[in-house]
Amino acid sequence: MVGEEGAFVLGWDEVLTEEELSVTLKVLCMSEEEFKEYKEQDGWEDDSEEEENATLSNEALSRLKTPCKKLLYDSVLLTLESYGADLKTEQDLLNNKEAYEKLSRREQQALHVRYGQKRILHQLLELVQ
């Protein structure tokens, strides 16, 4: 469902791998009985018209059912824990000109990437709280 890397791609305004995330959330939030029924009905091929027209914009994420929101929230927390430093630490480093200039160009670029990733993840946390 998720692909080789096992990751979803999030942007500032929407989920960029929305089909994979939609299917994954749907399946992970199903009861065992619902999952068996879904498989038996070949639910993997064509979902309802409602799902075909749904996009996972930030607004749509905030309207997900509670179990899906909890699953996303917990997943984001686990992802944030995998980073060595929190968002505030990264922001402080970006704002500290002296410390920032001591970093190599590559370290500066990595800092910007991590900071951007963490900001997106924090935004997602707010949407699914």
From TrEMBL:
<feature type="compositionally biased region" description="Acidic residues">
    <location>
        <begin position="43"/>
        <end position="53"/>
    </location>
</feature>
<dbReference type="InterPro" id="IPR015353">
    <property type="entry name" value="Rubisco_LSMT_subst-bd"/>
</dbReference>
<dbReference type="GO" id="GO:0032259">
    <property type="term" value="P:methylation"/>
</dbReference>
<dbReference type="GO" id="GO:0008168">
    <property type="term" value="F:methyltransferase activity"/>
</dbReference>
<feature type="domain" description="Rubisco LSMT substrate-binding">
    <location>
        <begin position="4"/>
        <end position="121"/>
    </location>
</feature>
<keyword id="KW-0808">Transferase</keyword>
<dbReference type="GO" id="GO:0005634">
    <property type="term" value="C:nucleus"/>
</dbReference>
<feature type="region of interest" description="Disordered">
    <location>
        <begin position="39"/>
        <end position="58"/>
    </location>
</feature>
<protein>
    <recommendedName>
        <fullName>N-lysine methyltransferase SETD6</fullName>
    </recommendedName>
</protein>
<keyword id="KW-0539">Nucleus</keyword>
<dbReference type="InterPro" id="IPR036464">
    <property type="entry name" value="Rubisco_LSMT_subst-bd_sf"/>
</dbReference>
<keyword id="KW-0949">S-adenosyl-L-methionine</keyword>
<dbReference type="Pfam" id="PF09273">
    <property type="entry name" value="Rubis-subs-bind"/>
</dbReference>
<keyword id="KW-0489">Methyltransferase</keyword>
